[in-house]
Amino acid sequence: MIAELAAISGSLWVAIEPKSAFVRVVGRASFAISPALKQFGTAVVNQSCKRFILDMIECESADSTFLGILAGLSMQTSKNGGGQMIIVNLSPKIYETISNLGLNRITQCYPVGQCPAEMKEKLQHIGQLKQVEIKQAEKKATAETIMEAHTDLIRLDQRNAPRFNDLLSVLRKDMKHRE
């Protein structure tokens, strides 16, 4: 089941260098891989990582949960000593979605073909990337991740509230029924 989930949702490949963390997303960037991204991102930010670089060259699509996790990590990175999140090689559709959600205001975003030469060079010399194991989360943990991601998108930009308030309301009711 996990292999099927990874095939449907995508995968994360990571590397850590002094003061920089790299993530390459392959396939779909969805709620299914968001907990793994959050766990990796939080760990490296807590280790005083100053640059969080996301390469989306092989990413087919990105859902709002995944982008909400990026928003939360970006806010966390900037709070931790002024770090920065850089997202490169964005397809036009994902770049538009990021812009519509306001994520481009707290990250450096570069569509495919517009990556600065210094960043291209850096990406070509990343050490060995390792695939992150994607574990299927329990329903409650998945709901909590989705809620946190969308809450962060609303904190980022209040104009996101009408988009996500109904979703958050449904998730809250569902979680209360599970208690």
Describe what you observe in this structure.
The chain is 51% helix and 23% strand. The protein is of the alpha/beta class and 179 residues long. The chain has one domain: 2-Layer Sandwich (Transcription Regulator spoIIAA), CATH 3.30.750.24. It has a 6-stranded mixed beta sheet. Residues 1-7 have low confidence and may be disordered.
Key features of this structure:
6-stranded mixed sheet, Transcription Regulator spoIIAA, alpha/beta, globular
Counting helices, strands and paired strands, the structural category is alpha/beta
Superfamily (CATH H level) name = STAS domain
Q: Which strand order spans the largest sheet, edge to edge or round the barrel?
A: 5-4-3-2-1-6
What is the CATH topology descriptor?
A: Transcription Regulator spoIIAA
What shape does the CA trace take? globular
Number of helices: 7
Q: Which band does the percent of strand residues land in?
A: 15-25%
CATH class: Alpha Beta
Query: What percent of the residues sit in helical stretches (DSSP H or I)?
Result: 40-55%
Q: For the CA atoms, what is the radius of gyration? A: 16 Å
Please trace the helix and strand order, writing H or E for each element.
HEEHEHEHEHEHH
Domain module tally: 1
Largest sheet: 6 strands, mixed
The second-level CATH architecture is 2-Layer Sandwich
The strand count comes to 6
- Any low-confidence stretches, pLDDT <50, length ≥5? 1-7
How would you state the average pLDDT, rounded? 88
